[in-house]
């Protein structure tokens, strides 16, 4: 818990903040290229955020004080959530403050206020978005928790630093439980961040949106905060998956060279992961809402198989 | 100045009794009830809090014998850690209700119902609960239990003009007595082996495993019926909504916990050697109760009925913690058993606080708008800002979100479940994570439900005239809610202090407490060991406040003016009115569709004579059809069979008499 | 015994066995016929791979032949035959309706836990690394039988039957290092003959009752009443 550790935590949080729009731009660029278009520049999301921050924010007549407070709460909770994930170095003091269950809690807090904001103005779209979002997240929770359990039962800790350290120490080990947990977690991540095939992040068609429906009434800096929070959440899941399941390259000592190497490896891992995401998004179509439960049941089944593999094949008798 | 904590508790009981007596004059002088009776009740609550706290801070077990009861079976009372904790719980809620009560009962002053009955039975109810917790022998326990059940029956049936209320009251009374009978039989088994009705005698009883299981099943059934476990919960959603709201808060917040106390006292203290099979049964029933409770709650649009079903869910969560604790205790892991016990106790007090808060809030809405149906509410946050704020805190707490208290107990329960790797039995190691996954599903569905409740009731636009004209309630009512909301926040930010207080209970019951939980200072909660899991609630709160504060400050520099208002965007459609909003039923429709199997849904669209289409939807509890109707049919059939004895012929009756006489003579010889 | 202490090849055995179990679940829940046949093919391929890995770990050479046979039969020939059958009966686009897919899958999960519990005493015997594969193979057998109960389509029932055989083969390979070659050849040809016979029967059933739904097999009696 040295000051250097806390300083690194702060730097990591800032990296998350600044890198999230860039990654969003990267995935849009790749999707455009796959669809034979030129696509926007990589820095377009920054320009969009800047434009929104400069514009005036408006509120509907029927909006309550909660509408005004919600963007800050959503953004702040997501920001605190990203601060506990080891990005560059394994040992992170904030990981002892809040473990992976608290991470799920932070995301749940953000989602709670996002859904309430959707219901605030009293339009049908907000209610629809909130209702669908709560359905999808409720069904995704058991799968997420089962994956967390499998990880925690192997590493015998819920502290993210400990889990990453355990995976690093094990070297290249082919664990069926981690394989299934990874597959399940990827499916859950797609559902929670609202990507195809669960939700379309680019649509503004009324009947097909979940996340967009809840933030429909926001404008100006409020909308900027909501968009930034969504980009942060996407980066959060990507980093979580790459750091926990593919931890090689992360710095175990706090030397500048190790950190620089970790940074480079991280950029590489994220770019590959986002490439895979873009290809999947281009190749699949969005499912209708009532097929989402089947999709999430599949995620739960995979993580459940991961747990069974752990209990039956990996642990002792 | 601190006298014997047991004497303080005794004074608290006496004050509650006094409040009941004073209320007898309330019909003549309404201010009596409002002013004096409620004050006495509040004092009683305060003294209970002090008594409970002092026994938790300095662990002790104080006993005394009362000069009441039968000559050879005097009543004995005991105040130890477990009793002190529940006394604290009773006291906190009673104080909040005493603050809230004067404003709320104003509306009954001009009604047809007797104020004396309301005040009198409230006092007796609180007295009964306090005595149950203090009892040290089965006789006093059952007397106090009956007092508690009967006085709450009269409170449930308070507004007995409506037939539905009478029916709810009858169902409540019936099931309370079936449960009490089962508990009495359980005590009977223990008393038989222990040769005495006092708890001290029962503790030393040597039971062989089968009889111990019989006693356990009887106690589980009886206490489970009173606390509302599925499938014996059906009285809860009928009885809790019809009582006056501050009584609903007491019933849901405290009485259900007294049943949990009874179960804990019976199994952990009196029975002793816990078998792992019991833990599995409790875990399974708890998980099912939690999931079914929240699913049924999602389908309700009556606010108080929804909250009642949530009580079923949370009792399920408490029993999940207890089940895990019993499992670990039975397989020889006392540290993990202590963790499970602490998680269950923490959730007990959390639920008491936030459920009490939510019921008081529902009562405030009912008081102002005379509406219980969420489909008629809307936009209440702008009309009742303080109630809205406190209700929001209650919603966040019950959805188990950081930094409030609901999250801490759920975190502790998950940590207990995660320690399943320590068990040798592989089947249990697979079952416990599945139970934890059900708990996660429950938590997420609870959050969905409270988004629905808050969004439909407090946000959006008002759906009826009474709601449009709503105003916020009086200061006393707000104070009661505010106290509970503050406690919710405090219990969320200072978990280490609370766990340290709670630590005396597992030390007494299981022989081991959580030694390392508070070893890193007041900032960190490390239930098992710092390397396994740690949580720093104050730092989390700091982090959240910093993130919110910094983003708000940075963005609002120079923009501290009122935001311009405009019409809602709504994708360009013209001004939305209140009927275009999502209703509570519509919000829950996706979940109703996904989980449709588990409900009994009657949905129909009929065409009326004048061409209008009418849609009706009725979601009812499957437990009625699966459990109660067969039992009812069996009872009627058995009754018919026995009824054949009544043939009406004198000679038949003489024949029965001769037969019985012959059998008795043969037995004697 | 820690997984990471085993050599990489043995870890791979666990992974592929787990994939075979996942293929069993995929067979159970998959309503589209062509996708089911492909899942079965993947299951056959993973069983063959496990055989090959066990052969290379323990140096038993006739197991390589066994693996090749399994791959050829279970992964290529039989799926191809079923596929051809489905095309000739024009059932490619058919989707079977399972009443409650979530319940079916959850029962499957319960069967897996039960199989593990049953297999626990066997593990206490001294067997190196591959002892728990018995629990996995028993699960595959039980899931195959459950699939035959839960699905109406005749093709799905055949797949369930075949996957039971996969499970038994996996158990034999993992615990006893394979059966004698003669026995394996015999079993393999039995399975091939069974597949051919099934194909013949499919046509007859389809002609008689115009559907391949086993619940409708009771219609066969009504045919005699027609003039």
Q: What does this molecule look like?
A:
The complex is a heterotrimer of chains A (317), B (669) and C (227). Chain A has helices at residues 3-34, 44-54, 65-82, 93-97, 100-120, 124-155, 160-170, 176-192, 211-214, 220-245, 256-283, 292-314, and one strand spanning 58-60. Chain A is an all-alpha fold and 317 residues long. Chain A has one domain. Chain A is globular and about 55 Å long. Chain B is mainly α and 669 residues long. Chain B is built from 25 helices and 5 strands. Chain B has helices spanning 5-22, 30-57, 81-104, 115-134, 138-156, 163-194, 199-203, 209-227, 236-242, 245-271, 276-298, 303-330, 334-369, 380-383, 385-398, 405-418, 426-457, 465-468, 475-493, 495-502, 504-509, 537-556, 584-594, 622-643, 650-668; strands at 62-70, 73-79, 564-566, 600-607, 613-620. In chain B, the strands form 2 sheets. Chain B has a two-stranded antiparallel ribbon with strand order 1-2. In chain B, strands 4-5 form a two-stranded antiparallel ribbon. The longest helix of chain B is centred in the middle third of the chain and has 36 residues, at 334-369. The model of chain B has no long low-confidence stretch (mean pLDDT 88). By secondary structure, chain C is mainly α. Chain C has one domain. In chain C, helix 5 runs antiparallel to helix 6 (154-176). Chain C is globular and about 55 Å long. The model of chain C has no long low-confidence stretch (mean pLDDT 80). Chains in contact: A-B, A-C, B-C. At the A-B interface, strand 1, helix 3, helix 4, helix 5 and helix 6 of A face helix 15, helix 16, helix 17, helix 22 and strand 3 of B.
